[in-house]
Structures are given as structure tokens and as C-alpha cells.
Amino acid sequence: MNAPILDSILAQVRTALERNNLSQAAKLIEKLRPADQAEVFSELDEDEQLALLTELPVEESADILEELDEDEAAELIEAMHPTEAIRIVDGMEPDEAADLLGDLPPEQASEMLAHLEDSDEVRPLLLHADDSAGGLMTSEFLALRRRTTAAAAIQALRDWKPDRENIYYLFVVDAEQKLRGVISLRDLVIADPDTPLEEIMDTDVIAVQAGIDQEEAARVMTRYDLLALPVIDDTGKLLGVITIDDVVDVLEDEASEDIQRLGGSEPLDKAYLNTGIFSMTRKRIGWLLMLFLTATLTGSVMRFFQDELQAVVALSIFVPLLIGTGGNAGSQTTAIIIRALAVGEIDWHDALKVWWKEERTGLVLGLGMAIAAYIRAITWEPNPALALTVATSIIGIVLWATGIGSLLPLVAAKLKIDPTVVSGPVMSTLVDATGLFIYFSIARVMLGL
Amino acid sequence: MNAPILDSILAQVRTALERNNLSQAAKLIEKLRPADQAEVFSELDEDEQLALLTELPVEESADILEELDEDEAAELIEAMHPTEAIRIVDGMEPDEAADLLGDLPPEQASEMLAHLEDSDEVRPLLLHADDSAGGLMTSEFLALRRRTTAAAAIQALRDWKPDRENIYYLFVVDAEQKLRGVISLRDLVIADPDTPLEEIMDTDVIAVQAGIDQEEAARVMTRYDLLALPVIDDTGKLLGVITIDDVVDVLEDEASEDIQRLGGSEPLDKAYLNTGIFSMTRKRIGWLLMLFLTATLTGSVMRFFQDELQAVVALSIFVPLLIGTGGNAGSQTTAIIIRALAVGEIDWHDALKVWWKEERTGLVLGLGMAIAAYIRAITWEPNPALALTVATSIIGIVLWATGIGSLLPLVAAKLKIDPTVVSGPVMSTLVDATGLFIYFSIARVMLGL
Predict the structure, then answer these.
(1) Which residues in chain B are closer than 8 Å to A284, comparing Cβ atoms?
(2) Residue B162: predicted pLDDT
(3) ipTM greater than 0.85, yes or no?
(4) How many CA atoms lie less than 13 Å away from B162 in the CB half-sphere?
(5) Residue A163's pLDDT is what?
(6) Among partner residues B35, B248, B317, which is closest to A251 by beta-carbon distance?
(7) Which domains, ranges and CATH numbers included, belong to chain B?
């Protein structure tokens, strides 16, 4: 639904709330889809939100909490009457409920867990790290035995009535709950009703261990175009299922984190507009200070060459140009390499190939930039030796920047450090100091300082 | 499948090909899943690839072409015998076939289209821009009438046997093919067999027009957790369906483009390792030159203040520090804002709110950085007036950078320019020149130059 319509509904909800007409406000929200409900909802004050959550049917309230930011949802549940909170959390999907409990104070979480009807489904999910495949999976799935017929499987599906609408695979397990096969709902529907599942199931199942990183699980699903991915323990027992809608969220979040890190900030925990000034500052000041410290390196290089600067003041005019070009060439490389790593196009084994490709690209780029730099320098200061110094330096700096820019992320990935951490700003600051060193060294020789 | 296993299969395929045992090589590849087939396949030489495509069963060859980079696939089809090429393209899904035809020389494309069995399905897809919802949709869908019973619908599905496995919605249309409702396969399966579709269908269908941007369609699907999104024309007639697997690819590609643009390069057309040196240079030299030109602005500012630099050479030592901090603060802001725009958390209407949040964040960040800068300056040069100049400048520069960094992407989005284009490097270069201007102006006053 587009923004103007939602804005007008929000206005109507507010009017209803001002008139203390809670049921009218609830009715307006009920008509919306969950994502829209959450958008309107998060514009309201907390006491209005609490009142509405109590007024709305429990499934609607549960849907809204699932769509809200996790911290926002946790705050509301904390502020709510316990009986009411338990009723709503019981209406949530087990994986969402588990995530929410993880964000509550431990005593409140265990108190709630003790009273949940679905606690058997939620409890095992709490054992897995939030960012692992186990933390992403739901425990709602249908597992049948291999001699079950297609007709009986469809009947089991009818009886089951899962909360979750988008379940399109059934799983076949043995007596020890070990995963043996998978059947898509489509194959089940078009099969002869009397066929046992073992004849139509696919035994070559792609599954992942509960402990692997959620991003890795997401990559498996996108690589093989899966709508659901079974999660198993180390004995092969089926623990849960990851569905494609959660994977899309994971991929989007990972891309957001990469982009924010490339910009030189720690990833935000919440949506932009929900992030406060101090949280925002906290995420950013660390990097700024670190980059400041490494930038003083660049200042130190300039201090080291103070005599040369004193002798030829014009040298300093080209500093921003050279620093800028080195940093830009380096961050082009890093951004491209980091993304290629993230989507799995390259890995550590390609390091030499990647470095060689970047050095050749760097050479062509450097030559192009050298021509531009020479022309710019000679028109600024009619001093051919100085112009040649600048042009030669820029080739060296671009080669250095593309080389470092390609190897740093690959080495980081090899050392299991997030490659975005060594990226963009960090890299350019490092390239700055060394780049100036290259520049002043060349100047010393060429200008005979 | 993990890399070492694929490497060993690649080695076996190569050995088989060296021994001219084409059928053995084909057998090895046939055992793999499409994504793995394509990975092994793209390591081979073009004549080996062509030989294998002819040897493999036509569905396998079609699967491989679908998984390959679009340009790679188009080159193979161009090099192939026309009869063989037509046979394979006929085995591809209509949307993939249409994309492939779009990458061929026009005469060859229309020649092939004339001979395709599926040409009726492919032709309408060619009318839509590659990056629109129409370009992304498939024309393979099942549309039934509202009085059809659940049992008849299941029978229709059985008779239909689509190529595509992951179709989990059926659509209900009227006599004019206008979209009237949607039913998930799950609801169909659990319904009483005699129920007419109109009683179980959801009439509140989310659909998009064929002309909208594919990224917008992808956002609609992720927002409402849809597995399939119907595409209609302006009269409401059902034209096709976008499925979630294509959407994941779109979101990944868009994130890649944003990351590459943020790094200051045009988005690459192909996977990293398939991009040649000259294509790589072409994507990058334009931005480097543009940034070089704007960086000369910074040089001009320094030339403008040459007398001040001559008087206090120590001023130049702090240039990289100030430029760096301004650029970093600005690119933090831009990256965060660009991502918030991309995922739809903010839009142009939030500009004032965003700017105000960034200015307040900038003030806190600037104060923190000012303390660090003062300490650094006073330890380098025991000159309190100079240190105060640097500290004051850094507050001004950070405020300026966060302000510009927040407004530029929003203004760009409002003007329908890709916000990443005004981002990262461009922004920092702009911030550099103005930042130095702020610095030298403050120095003039504080140091009485």
C-alpha cells in the first residue's frame, strides 16, 4: 500500500484514539496487511500501542509484533501485563517467539517460557545462536514416514493447519527422526493418491547443520533456488526448516551491514529512524577516531618531509589530488572484491588471480590518470620536473592502492575477519600515508631535493 | 556442493574430455545440480562447452544456460548450430529464453524466435524492458475461472506439468483475463474437493503493473512475504507472474550495484572473474577522472590560501587529517542514508527529520573529534592557537559533511537520480574542498594571517 494511503489511515487511527474509540482504531488497523499494520503501528505512542495490542484479536497482535523491529517488540512485551503478553507470544510463529524471548531480560523470558502453550516448540530454538542456521529455522514442519501414502500425507496436512502459510515441502524421516527425503507440495498433489512417499520423495536432500552461519545457509538456498532448507544436527536428525522469506531478510540485512561498514560505521541495530542520536554516535565515533589515528600517520609522513615541503611549497598543492586518487582507486577495488567475496564468486584461493587482475587494471588506470595529472600540474605550475613527479607518483600510488585493495579483503576473509572491516576508509587512510611516502620519495629524486 | 568436490569433478571432466570421451564427461556433469553444473561448465574452453551442450540431454543443457552469466550463454548460443540452439532454448523457461534472445544480435534473435515451439510464450516477454516487472515475470502460470472446483483445479495442475517446479499459487481470472483472485496451493489442497475456487480464493490480490521497476516489484514481494507476484497491464489483465527466486537475484544484484557504486565504480556487467581488464578499466576510469577533476578544486583552495601556507607551513600538516575526517564522517552518513532509502525505511518526505538527526549526531561526533584533534595538534606543534584552529575546524567540517551527506542522497532520490551516484567518493571530494575552505578561513581569523 502506498505512503499517502497509509498516512491517511494513520491520521484516522489517531483521531479515533483521541476520541478514546479504541475499537474503531483497532478496526482500521485490522483491515491492513501485517507489514502495513506494523508501519502505522510504529508511528503511535507506546501507551497507544499497548492499548491497541490488547484490543486487537490475538493473531493480529502477534502478526504486528513479528513485523516490528525486534527491540521495539521486546519493549512492548516487557511493558505489557504478563497474561496478555503470554497470550500474544503464543500466537507468534515459534522462531519469531524465540527471537523475541532472546531480547527480553532473562528472568522475564524464562517466566514467560514456563507459561507458553507452545513452549515445546520454542524451547529448542532458544539453544541456537541468533545468527546461526538453528537461530533462523522454525520448528513448525511436517515430517512423515516413508510408507505414508500421498493421500494420507494430504490428510495430515489438512489436520495440521500450520500458522505459517508458506510451507511447500514435506519431509520424510525414519524412526530416529533422521531426514531421509523431501517432497514438494506440488509433486504430492500431482501424484497418484495411493503412492507411498518413498516413491515420490527426493532422497538427495540438501540440508545444513544447525551451527552454520545464517548467511551461509542463505547462500545455499539462493544457489539451489530452494524455498525451504532443512536443518539437521550432527547425527542427521531433522531439527527445523528455514523458509525463503527469512532468507530474504538475512540477505537484505547482510547487504545493509556491508554497506554501512563500507561507509565506515558499525552496523545499526535498528531501522534508521528508530536509531537514537547517541546510539548513532556510538556506532560511528569509534571508526572516526581509529581513522583519525591512522590519518595522523599521513601527517607524520608530511612532517618527515617538512624540509622538502619548505623548499617546494607547490608540492603540498598536489597532496589532496594524490591522496584522493589513491583512496578512490583503492576503494573501487575493495568494494568490488568484497561484494565478489560476499556472493561467493571468489575466495582465498583466487587471491593471486585477483591480485594480478587488479595490478593490470591498476596499470591501465594509472597511465590514464598520469596523463590527466601531468596536464593539470603543468597548467598549475609551469615546472616540467614537478609535473613529471606528480605523474609518476600517481602511477605508483594507483598500483599500490589496487594491489593493497585487492589483497586486504582476501587476507581478512582467510583470517575469518569480516572483510568490510579492512575496507573503504581504513584502506584509503593506509593508502594515503604510504602514497605520500611514494610521492615525496619520487620528488626527492626527481627534483633533487 | 563444496569447492574441493567440485574441483575434483572438474578434473575428472577434463580428463574425460582429453580422452575424447564426451559421453563420460556428460555423465559426470549430469549428476550435478544446475548451479554446480554451471560452475564446472564455465571453467571449460568454449569448444569443450559447445561439444558438451550437444552431448547432454536438452533439459540439462537448458538448465546450464539458465544458470550461466547472460553474456556467456548468449555467446554459446551464437556459436552453436542453429537447429541445436533452437532445441536448447525451447527447453528453457520462457523468461530466461526471452532474456537470452535479448542478448543476441537482432537478426539471429528474430530468426530463432520464428522457429521456437514456445514462441507464443516468449514473444510477449520481449516487449518489456529487462529491468521492469514485465522483464522479470514468467508467462508460465495457471489461470482458472472462478467456478472451477478445487478438485478440477488440482486436475488442471496435473495436466499442466509446468517446467518450473516452484509454482505455488493459482490465479483466478474472468472472461477478459482480468485478475480476480489468488489461491495458494496449500489452501487448494486442504479445501473440500467440491468447493468452487471463488469461495477459497483471496480477492484482495497484490499485483503490480508490467512497467514498474523490477526493484520496486521485489520490494513489494519482500514487504508482504509473497512467493509469487502477479503482473498485470493497465486494464488489470493478467500478463505473468514474478517468482521469489528471481526476486532474490534482483535484490542481490541491486545490492551489488549499490556496493560497487559506493566504492566509486560503475556496476560490473558480469561476475568478477569473467570481467576483462579493459571492461574493468572502462567501468572505473570515468569516476576516477571525475573525482580527479573535483579534487583539483581542493588543490585550487590550497593555491588560494598559498600565502597562509607559506606563512605557517605547519598548517599543511593537518590537511590530510581534516580532509580524512570530513570525508569519513560524510561517507558514514551517505552509506547509512542510501541503504535506508534502498530498503524503503525513509524517503524524500523525511528529509528534514533525517538532516536534523544527522546534524545532532554530527555535533556530538564533531565535539569528540575536536578533543582528539586538539590533543594531537598540541603534541605535534606546541602552538595553542593552531591547535584551537584545528579543533574548531574539525567541528565545522564534520557538521558540514554530515549535513551534505544526508541531504545529497535524498535530493538525488527526489530527482530520480540513483543516490549512490552522489555518494561516497564524490561526496568526500566535495566535502574536501569546502572543508579546507572552512579550515583556512578559521586559520586566517584565529592566527591573524
Answers:
(1) 329, 332, 361, 365
(2) 66
(3) no
(4) 20
(5) 58
(6) B248
(7) 3-132 (1.25.60.10), 143-251 (3.10.580.10), 272-446 (1.10.357.20)
